[in-house]
Each structure stands twice: as structure tokens, then as C-alpha cells.
Amino acid sequence: MLSIVGLNSDGMDGYDLIIIGAGPIGLACGIEAKKARLNYLIIEKGCLVNSLYHYPANMTFFSTSERLEIGEVPFISNNPKPTRADALEYYRRVCSSWDLHVNLYEEVKESKLSIMGNFSITTTKGKYSARAVVLALGFYDLPFLLNVPGENLLKVKHYYNDPHPYYRQKVAVIGAANSAVDAALETWRKGAEVIMVVREPSLRESVKYWVKPDIENRIKEGSIKAYFNSTLTRITETQIEIKTREGLKKLANDFVLAMTGYQPPFELMKSIGIQFHDDEFHTPIYNENTMETNVSGLYLAGVVCGGLKTNKWFIENSREHAKLIIKDLVN
Asked: What is the pTM of this model?
């Protein structure tokens, strides 16, 4: 078993394992580490389950509650599919039940592998050493940018939380997946005048099955105007410009909700030495049986394993990553 406890010779706190990210999968890794009696630390740059916290307030999960469970802690919700609020309550309870060692609001600035084979990690609050590191990183902090003039205006939002601010406002929702559909429907129902700008010829097939008929009917009846095969080309304080099949259109606009998706922190991953497959998804290289990357002692867990294919790994199918990692560490 690994053993590195207390302070190193350079004064840094030493651990068997440091887990970067306190989302559900990071917490699952902490639980397995605690079961194995490893000296571990979870470091999170935001609040507990930070990505889930930044989901829209009224979001409903695809999965049922039992598929989101970790650490043998029952997830009881009032509805067949739990909400964001249900999940936040549940993962707080998990963290408390297991008394997990979590440092919140502490951002990792640098991680290096020393000549001694240990990882040296520098954060906004301190320095640490570990024999092994797990990157249980989400992807919600790095949105895909539109890269159009005016994107830096305050009216442009890459995150959507609540529909109330958009009452009686002209809102353009950019995107074709679940987040765009949810934002369009919720803001329209709360009194916004909504259009959708969709690069593809139709909405994504992955749109939640209980929502898809709703948005399709709203578009069909004209309550929400959708511009398919179209792209946003310019944003001003009072207008947007859209390149459509019928030509360039200029439309009055108050807010732009750019629901264009998010990406993993590739720069951080590359800086630690992780290599990637030469594929369209920029998939990181790792051993599927142990979750270890090409860097010895450096593991991946959760959605980050899919690279740009951010819809491949979910809580329900990646929570087992924790067991694979800890099994490899203690053997």
C-alpha cells in the first residue's frame, strides 16, 4: 500500500493521493481512498459539486436517483428523475456522511512530477506533494466561444440559470442540444420573445425525450422562431446579425444565451504531460482497466476521459472509475 504522510522535507503537505475536482466522481474517488485507508485530499476550485451547482436552477437529470448514488448512500428524491436541488442536497449528505477531506475554493495552478516520482501541486492556498493524482475534472468552466464581434458584451451569457431576468426581453438562444432547448422553453414561458439560432439542420437527437415534442411544437406553431442552418455573425448592444439560408438578417436583441457547449481543461492536462489520441474528440490516452494515463501515477476519472465527446461519460457510467483507480493504487 502507498504511504506518504505528514510533511515532506521541503515542508509541503504529503499525501498518498490528491484528487482534483469535488464533483460526484471526485467524491467517489475520495470514498474509495478512505475505504483503502489512503491519506488523500480532494481539491476543488469552487463549491462542492461545482459544475452541478452551475446547472440551470430547474434542471432535471436524465438518470434516476439510484443511478447517481455513490458510497452506498441512498439517494431518495420526490420524483422519478431528480432535480438539481435534489442532487445538491444528496452530494452534501454524501460528503458529510463519509466526512470526506475536501478543500473548497482552492484552485490548482500547477502540477509537476518531481525527479523523485512524486507530484508537486501548487494551489491558490498552498503546496502539496502526492504519490498519485486523480484528475476528476468537469468541463463546465470552459465554454466554446462564438468568436464573433460583440461576444464580450455583458448581454452575452455562456451560462443560463434562471428565466426571470429575461421577462419581456428579446432573447437569442444559440445551440441545438439540451441546454439550449431548456433555456429557450423556460425563458419563453416566463415572457421572453425567443428565437433559436441553430447551425445544424435540426435539433440534436440527444434532446431529452420528454422535452423534444414540446420544443418542436413551439417552433411549429411559431411561438419560438428557429433559424436552422444558420450562424450568428455579429452582436451589438441592440441587435444581432445572423447568416441564414435566406441571407443576412439583422434582428433586435436584448440578450444572447450562447448554449454552445463546454470543453475539458486541455491546457492543464497537457502541462502535466498527458498525451492524446489523434482523433476528432482529442481523447486523452489512458488504460481503461486502471484509468492511469501515460504519466505514471496520474489517473483520469469521469467526463474528462471523453475529451471533446462530453456526452460519453456520466455519473452513472463513470462512478466505477473510482474503484478501478484505488484498486490499481493499492495492489
From this structure: 0.84
